[in-house]
Amino acid sequence: MQYVAVAAAVAGGIGSYTMGRAQAKLYGAQARQAELQARAQSLRSRAEALNHMRNGVEVLKNVARNMATINARAAAGSIDPFSGSVQNLAMYNMGKGVADFYTTRENRQMAELNGKIIEASGAMQSAQYIAAGSMAKRQGFINMISSFGQAAYMGSQTDAFDFTKTTSPVPTGGYNVSPGYSGHPGSLS
Fold this sequence. Notes:
The chain is mainly α. The protein has helices spanning 2-76, 84-157.
């Protein structure tokens, strides 16, 4: 029975070590997944930033188109396009256009910063998973050593490791063996 207890403790130690390694692999996979998710979200932020940049270009094109229209209509009516109410209309158009352009530029910058934050967050989460995997692996090793120590202690308490004893683990009682029997079949002396 003592051998079973020692073997069970050793098997438990090996199981702890194996579980620690498996847990470390799981954390490694989660770390890679966190990095990939962060990268995907970062790319979506980059696409959003490019969309804001495209909108900013469209705003500037509209401002230029409106300015050209104002100047052409004023000139067609023999009005000075750079004075009076025509100039006020052009300045109003320019002010609205510039405000819209700056809004799109700020939106683009926020989307880019958001992408960087997402990537940094993913890297941090990945590092946490890697550290947890390392700790799980280390804990599995420590548990294995602890189980081996318990097995050694149990074995020493029950004399399981005392190889100086001459007792045989195989029972010999009940056999009629003559003193001259050598153990080979057909040999009586």
